[in-house]
Design brief:
The protein is mainly beta. About 10% of the residues lie in helices and about 35% in strands. The strands form 4 sheets. Strands 7-10-13-16-19-22-24-25 form an 8-stranded mixed β-sheet, covered by helices on one side. A 6-stranded mixed β-sheet has the order 3-4-2-1-5-6. It holds the Pfam family PglD_N.
Length: about 210
Amino acid sequence: MKKSLIIFGAGGLGREVKTIVDVLPEWNVSGFCDDHVPVGTTVMGAPILGDTKYLETLKAASVVVAIGNPLIKRDIVNKIKQNTNIEFVTIIHPRAVLCDASTIDVGRGTIITAGSILTTSIRVGQHVLINLNATVGHDAVIGDFTSVMPGVNIAGQVEIASAVMIGSGANILNRIRIGDDAVVGSGAVVLENVLPGKTVVGVPAKSILKK
């Protein structure tokens, strides 16, 4: 019998995650939770059950947080986990490739989508998103809450800290270090380390001032 799963986030990513869950043999989406969509609304045939406060009341539930923005995701997870009855679930699409799976550590609440390729000796933190057709090279480390958008290439021995946003199509070269809460713009080619909280864009990637 399939186990019930709640997806937090009823936006585009949440709907995409539902398409993954729908092909997994062990899970069935019982509904969505969202802080901005009214209870009773139906999304892809599944009801909106409530918001973060609703999750705080549950005596037991399995949840995956489908939020792309790392900072918002971190805030939501920290609220939800106050209820120790909540279990965070890892979702991996059957067409994601973990080449040397026994050497790849994937944390709870992480989502790995179709076409993603992870090679060997990789550590992925909790509540990470690795989106469509991203590649992660040997000995890479990806910190909690980080979001890796479609088509990103992360080379070997890269270390990405917590709550980093890596935009679509970015390329991060070998041995690069990216600090907490940093942002790498779409299509950027990162040749140098990125300090915490910095935003880098372009080819080669350069830091810009946040407005």
